[in-house]
Amino acid sequence: MTDTPVIGVLALQGDVREHLVALAAADAVARPVRRPEELTEVDGLVIPGGESTTISKLAVLFGVMEPLRVCVRDGLPVYGTCAGMIMLADKILDPRSGQETVGGIDMIVRRNAFGRQNESFEAAVDLKGVPGDPVEGVFIRAPWVESVGATAGVLAEHEGHIVAVRQGNALATSFHPELTGDHRVHRLFADMVRANREAESL
Question: Among all residues, which ones are annotated catalytic?
Answer without folding.
Answer: 82, 176, 178
